[in-house]
Amino acid sequence: xxxRFKQFLNxxxxxxxxxxxxxxxxxxxxxxxKVDSTLKIYADGDYxxxxxxxxxxxxCYNQAVNNGLRLDFLFFKKGYCEFNSGQYNEAIRxxxxxxxxxxxxxxKEGFTTPGHSFVKGGNGVYWSTLNSVSLQYxxxxxxxxxxxxxxxxxDFYGCVDDFKKLHKSSGDSSYVSCLYLGKALIRTNKLxxxxxxxxxxxxxxxxxxxxxSLLGDAYSDRGYLNYRNGLKERACxxxxxxxxxxxxxxxxxxxxxCK
Length: 259
Known about the structure:
By secondary structure, the protein is mainly α. The protein is built from eleven helices and three strands, in the order ααβααββααααααα. It folds into two domains: 153 residues, Serine Threonine Protein Phosphatase 5, Tetratricopeptide repeat (Alpha Horseshoe), CATH 1.25.40.10; 87 residues. The termini are far apart. The N terminus is likely disordered.
């Protein structure tokens, strides 16, 4: 092999290596640029989310997901936007995705999840972890809104299951969750169990944090249960109290059954 030919081969090899590294560098720069662009889109979604412009936020979050971003709290916010837009099937899907990798732990046991970080998974997908406070909030709120979504889709058994898991895990006994758990239990024909949730809400009537409309709903539903159990006088008392709070359903029940 001639010296000139060897030089030619070495030059060709050098050019090939340079070309190879240029291609890799271009590819890496393109990936970095895409990630930066996607994070900017996600940040735009957060801008709208914080201002309660959920439709605009959802457009950004959908685009970020389509670009390969897979953040736990991205799916939570996306599901929340869908819930507020009445897209309950989609909300259930994304709220489930937001907690699917998080173990179901009791709050008192604490959370040891590491702080937020980006982790590249298969197919160029980026996952993240959350700090303990964010994890608690996201996890319990995801179950809360998923339960409500199931109620609105008339999946009452699924709604009961989610709310009960939420109550057991977090000790959550918010008035709204108790109200809808009671309502779902009625629809699953567990009348005795449902009554205790309405009675709990009514027992808190002196609490300034309790909305009057929600208290009226509790009187309405407990009155309905009393009436079904043959306790008409108790039912009419509940409906009368709810009517005083401006409950339309209590007014209708009074007019129909308590003449």
